Amino acid sequence: MNRVVFTAALLLVLVAAPRPAAADEDAPRVVLLSLPEQQPPAEMVRSRLSQQLESVGVRVDVEPAEIPPGSSEAWAAEAKKAAKRPGTLALIGWACDGQDCLLTVADARSGAIVEVPVRPGGDRAAMEEIAFAVASTAREAIVGSLLPELSRLRAEGEAPSPPPPTGDRVPQAYHPESGPDARGVRPWLWLEGGYHGEHPYPQGRPLHGPWIGLAMEARRSIVPAVSTGWLGLQRVVSEAGVVRSHRVPVNIELRIAIPVGPSTFSVSPAGRFDVVFASAEPAGPHGDSSSVEFELHVGGRTSWNLPLPGGIEAVLGAGILGTLLGHDYSVADRRAIAESTLRFGWWVGVAWSPIG
Questions:
Q1: What digits encode the pLDDT tens for the residues 243-299?
Q2: R_g (Cα) of the chain, nearest Å
Q3: 233 and 119 in one domain?
Q4: Contact criterion met (CB below 8 Å) for 327 and 339
Q5: Domain boundary residue, one of 106, 135, 156
Q6: Does residue 175 sit within a domain?
Q7: Residue 9: inside a domain, yes or no?
């Protein structure tokens, strides 16, 4: 009787004892290829990768190898070998030369292989940082869309098919103007020209005429420029007579260029030296008199350079100058044109580089 009771109790214990579930045996896993003198060591990477994949239920195993696979066929063979164990997703290995590492991921199902460069930030990253970078890159290969894409590409190569009749998968072409340095390489010398004008205050009579200039990109964001032109004829009639003047301005500026997409916006301190040719014709029998005066103005200017087809650029700008040295223009000792205090200017034109 005691023997019967003991046998029954033993069977009950064996039935109730926990056994590994099939789900645990077939749980998804990745395999790290461990090589002699590998840096960082496979176990160091495994500990970090296990922590990162714990939340998605993927375990990380290590398989030793005497020599690294020397070809795509060898990697595919190693991946197929690892895939004999259920649940294997990929075989992962790496080789590091100082700070530069090359991570190899072989898909266990298709044998497709991809190599990903890994370079942690800094020139003196510690071995722990390199191991973390390798583990993090491997994590993204596992939890991202890389492995399904490898299988799809491998299958397409084995059995190519015509493209699907849809435009949804048409890749977008890269346009340099959308990049961080959209202007590309610009010539250092530009010829400019166009039409400009200004409104002197308090005279209130707009002046305008043609201009030409030269700009040199001494550095990428520093552009010295010089220009000259003609601001037309100014004629004032009063009871005392007639005063005529026309001025030839010489502008010197130092542009601070700011790329805005393919165009360039610039701000600049500026100085202007005016040569003014004036003549006075008094009323009555008195003769004409003429003189040449010099004026000096300083201030700031802004401008836009907008690219156009044919390698030229449209130039738009505006600025304001304050008069440091100016003159009244009189006839018969009566002031006809008052000395300016401020000069509000604008200009439009084109820029062209003779060297490219």
A1: 888 899 999 999 999 988 888 999 999 999 999 998 888 866 666 788 899 999 999
A2: 40
A3: no
A4: yes
A5: 156
A6: no
A7: no
Q: Which residues pair with 114 in a beta bridge?
A: 105
Phi, psi of 106 (to 5 degrees): -115, 120
Tokens of 129: 């940082």
Judge contact between 253 and 242, C-beta under 8 A.
Answer: no
Please name the residue that has the structure tokens 């749980």.
Answer: 27
Tokens for 275, please give them.
């040569």
Domain boundary among 134, 156, 178: 156
* pTM across the whole model: 0.50
Could you read off the pLDDT of 136-166 as tens digits, one per residue? 888 888 887 777 777 777 776 666 767 666 5
Among 273, 264, 194, smallest CA distance to 222 is for 264
**Cα distance between residue 227 and residue 345, in whole Å:** 14
The CATH number of whichever domain residue 33 belongs to comes to 3.40.50
The two tokens of residue 198 are 């200004």
For residues 94, 95, 96, 100, the Cα torsion angle rounded to the nearest 10 degrees is -70
How many CA atoms, within 13 angstroms, populate the side-chain half-sphere of residue 201? 8
The domain in which residue 227 lies consists of 189-352
Whether the CB-CB separation of 345 and 321 falls below 8 Å is answered with yes
Joined tokens for residue 218: 């001494």
Answer whether 267's CB lies under 8 Å from 255's CB. Answer: yes
User: How buried is residue 284: exposed, middle or buried, by Cβ count under 10 Å (0-12/13-18/19+)?
Assistant: exposed
